[in-house]
């Protein structure tokens, strides 16, 4: 496990910049944390650091469940899920598994509500408050993600 203390939004952007250099199509990132903990902000920073121009607007896809970002400077698609509305339903038979581990990077907020379709290998990022700062904890499942964690 790797823990970063975030003091400012600029710290989140720096961390997204570091991580972006190690990501590629097919990667899966699971984002855990309470409402307002910084999952969507980090996703926005990461998409920008992957090369997206300012025409891509990254918002939480709470009502649509999935947002796809393509082109506009990105080398590969980014699939951004907010599974919060899938609580009690699950993601099976929704077609979402077609986006995981394919031609793009997949980021999942509230992954516990999609656990029925998620593979066993992923990078897990957990956002928690710790006094005046926010902790961003990284853990890895699978050798590919363990290498990314070591490189960070």
Give a short summary of the structure.
The chain has 152 residues and is α/β, with parallel strands linked by helices. 21% of the residues lie in helices and 28% in strands. The mean pLDDT is 87.
Keywords:
single chain, alpha/beta, Rossmann fold, 7-stranded mixed sheet, 3 helices, 28% strand, globular
Written description of the protein model:
- By secondary structure, the protein is an alpha/beta fold.
- It has a single domain (26-130, 145-151), classed as P-loop containing nucleotide triphosphate hydrolases (Rossmann fold, 3-Layer(aba) Sandwich), CATH 3.40.50.300.
- Helix content is 21%, strand content 28%.
- It contains three helices and seven strands; from the N terminus they run E-H-E-H-E-E-E-E-E-H.
- The protein has a seven-stranded mixed sheet with strand order 1-7-6-2-5-4-3.
- Helix 1 crosses helix 2 (39-49).
- The chain starts with a strand and ends with a helix.
Report Rg.
14 Å
The CATH superfamily name is P-loop containing nucleotide triphosphate hydrolases
Biggest β-sheet, characterized? 7 strands, mixed
What is the 3D form? globular
For the largest beta sheet, what order do the strands appear in spatially?
1-7-6-2-5-4-3
**How many helical elements?**
3
Strand content: 25-35%
Q: Give the topology string: H per helix, E per strand.
A: EHEHEEEEEH
State the separation between the terminal residues, measured CA to CA. 11 Å
The CATH architecture comes to 3-Layer(aba) Sandwich
Sequence stretches where pLDDT stays below 50 over 5 or more residues: none
Total number of strands: 7
Structural class call reads alpha/beta
Please tell me the total number of domains.
1
User: What percentage of residues falls in helices of 4 or more residues?
Assistant: 10-25%
Q: What's the mean pLDDT score?
A: 87
CATH topology: Rossmann fold
């Amino acid at each position: 496990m790797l823990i970063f203390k975030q003091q400012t939004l600029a710290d989140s952007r720096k961390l997204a910049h570091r991580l972006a250099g190690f990501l590629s199509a097919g990667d899966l990132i699971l984002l855990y944390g309470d409402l307002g903990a910084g999952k969507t902000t980090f996703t926005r920073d990461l998409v920008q650091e992957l090369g997206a121009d300012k025409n891509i607007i990254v918002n939480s896809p709470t009502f649509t469940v999935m947002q796809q970002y393509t082109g506009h400077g990105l080398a590969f698609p980014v699939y951004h899920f907010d599974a919060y509305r899938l609580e009690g339903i699950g993601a099976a038979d929704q077609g979402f598994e077609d986006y995981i581990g394919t031609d793009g990077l997949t980021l999942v907020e509230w992954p516990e509500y999609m656990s029925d379709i998620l593979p066993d290998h992923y990078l897990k990022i957990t956002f928690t408050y710790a006094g005046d700062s926010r902790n961003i904890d990284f853990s890895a499942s699978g050798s590919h993600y363990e290498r990314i964690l070591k490189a960070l």
